[in-house]
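During the second half of the funding period, the structural biology subgroup turned its attention to how the target accommodates small molecules. The most pressing case was FE2/S2 (inorganic) cluster, which had performed well in the primary screen but for which no bound structure existed. We therefore specified the complex as follows and requested a full 3D prediction, including the ligand pose.
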Amino acid sequence: MNKSIRTSRRAFLAGTAGLVIGTYLAPRGLRAQEAAAGGGGNPLPQPNAFVRIAPDDTVTVIVKHIEFGQGPNTGLATLVAEELDADWSQMRAESAPANDETYKNFAFGSQGTGGSTAMANSYMQMRQVGAMARAMLVAAAAAEWGVPAEEITVEKGKISHPSGQSSSFGAFAEAAAQQQPPAEPVLKDPANFTLIGTDLPKLDTQKKTNGSAIFGMDQYPDGVQTVVLARPPKFGATPGSVDDAAALAVPGVNAVHTLPQGVAVYADSTFAALRGRDALSIEWDESGAETRSSAAMEQEWAAAAKAGGAVVEEEGDLSGLEAEGVEVMEAEFMFPFLAHAPMEPLNGIIEVSGGEARASYGAQFPGGDQMTIAQVLGIDPTAVTVEVTLAGGSFGRRAQQDAHFAAELASVAKAAGDGAYKLVWTREDDIRGGYYRPMTAHYLRAGLDGDGNITGWQNDLANQSIMIGSPMGEMMGAKEIDPTSFEGSNMLPYDFGGRRVSWTKMDAGVPVLWWRSVGSSHTATAVEVFLDELLEAGGKDAVQGRLDLLKEDATRERAVIEKVAEIANWQGRSANGKGYGMAYAKSFGTYVAQIAEVEDRGGVPHVTKVWCAVDCGVAVNPNVIRAQMEGGIGYGLGAALFDEIVIAEGGEVVQSNFDDYRMLRIAEMPAVEVAIIDSTADPTGVGEPGVPPIAPAVINGWRGLTGQKIRRLPIVQPMV
Amino acid sequence: MTNLTVNGKEVTWDIDPETPLLWALRDHEKLTGTKFGCGVAQCGACTVMLNGMPRRSCVTPIGTLEGAEVTTIEGMEGAEFEAVQTAWQGIDVPQCGWCQSGQIMSATALLQMNGAPTDEDIDNAMAGNVCRCATYVRVRQAIHDAAKTMEG
Ligand code: FES
Ligand code: FES
């Protein structure tokens, strides 16, 4: 065991697992090259850390962003293949292991995936990698053939010279590794792109359609024990006294240990572990527990929003609200706690032996996790390897700035000693486990003059902060103000003749986290619904009204709004017995406008079609962009219609599984038509930006159809 | 002791007869294409074929399976399955992929019973398969595509 961990770890760090040394583009003189500056002011990448060319012609791109469906494996491989002039069929991708230095995300300063940053971050870096690798292959071929490098061409994975010499990549993989990497890799003119901008098939589709893709939970190292935890019934409660006699009597259960996070059952199989957990009898210490109900919090949050808080943005002043003949309108919105509920619940493998640890799971911030695991185990971070596997979704759930899953995984190993463990969360653990989208209250006020023009806009929010007091908050300077709490309520493209946004930080023992599109998951709804109501009250069209309010420089906003109106053949807020709702939101640098077509099915909105226009800069893979818009629309729609985490009086979470935390199902999924705006701007992300506009678009469409105003989400209130 | 056939191979499980088929397949046979999503028959990620019909393996105790024939995604074959798989690949249905084995099992079962399903047939047959990535638009399209190739 000891030996196998060390071997695999060393092999992995050397980047040689399962392959012959000397077949990589492992340039000498890396040092010199590290000092050279690349595009965007970031250091030039080390090509050997990002790409591997094997004698069998395969080109493997090492992807520093975790793949959980949003497509970085395909996207980053496209960038490398483009500059390398590889053939798409020879491209492969694998996840990078934890290394905060080599694989840092330029947006965070450490390794991590989030904020829809993968493409924006890697666009230049991975193109440089491809260009460097290409130059080294060409140099190797030039030396071998005795011809000038400039005369060599590369196309679709084939290196050729006019003399008739030609070769695939694999034959030169070893020789290329001996070449000096170029200090200034030359990138293609985008006009000459042959792969970027095309619908390349995704690299992982095949494995995901025949059952062979290996996710975190699919790993079974030798001798692994499955571990499940009995978790506190309330946030902030801790294990008190434990009677584990009945649990230990369950066949297959090997041990029970009390951890800071709960009571862990170790067993030979998942079912034995679950049975063992059922048999535990635990007294919880609830002295530190949050006992308020979510209903009580709602009232507090709403009152705090209405009272106003720290001003976080001011544009002009609000005197226009007091002017004569101006009618002041108000709205209060309430957004519930939401669970992310990724399809694959949290889980992970840890193997500990002889003072070394190997963890393997869907780690979204692997560098931070590595530190945390080392800390819990009391060993040096260099003795900890974190391998990143495919993950069954995240939507923010795995983006753990407090590394709580890594800490729990390490605690499991620490309590039991050397061995291999698989920690599994059940769906109930997931739904009740917190780290929710923060419950949020919005209070809005605006003035309308006699001509229906908006004369001022005030938006006051109250919610918990995700960042303040967290390690990442410290790093990013969020000390008193947390921009993720209100992003999307500020920096609006509309001219409201005076605007003020304030925010009040609320405190609760319920852990909160980024949920797909973060602040914009509620701000876009508050802003776009209230705006639509104002436009309607002022007798204005939802599309033209918005266009008229756009500031001069809001050209990309204008383009997506016009585009979506065009593809939807916009006729107004209702037509032929259906409602049509318009909404626009920019998040993570990407501009999205949507129109939802809504029917009334027994008093409940049913969305039949959604049109979506998106501007995310250069469209690296339009197929992936469309898929992310479709997915974002479905994810946001499910939450808008059905989802809410309710905390009962006393502090227990009411929902527990998909029977009471309702997922969108196929019959509720609208048809989706996506238009991608042609652009040469640097690419921005698409994983999250499809989400924000869908809820307001549906709510606006429903009002267009029925006249009913929605003030609280979810739209369909559960029959409890 | 439970004797049954899994993907055409005879297996004997000497484990708690109440063990759900899902965990027996994963933990004991290492057939990890069958996924855990909810454990309570609400998501379809664990769908397998039991004697030729789709079944939620997370709520199927192995004690009830003496002599049964179980097929998982790894052991699937046949015209409908191949048409579905090809259609899935043709339009890149999967995102994260966790639900997709279950989707493909349900879609195959649908086509085995109904060679030309309408949207409504699809909605009914696929209602039990949750996709948190909301790949539903493509699931529907791929089933239509598969039906078309089956027609010839
Ligand atoms: S895991 Fe069986 S239906 Fe969800
Ligand atoms: S593809 Fe992610 S849950 Fe369906």
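Two results from this model are relevant to the next phase. The two ends of chain A are 52 Å apart (CA to CA). The first strand of chain A starts at residue 51 and ends at 53.
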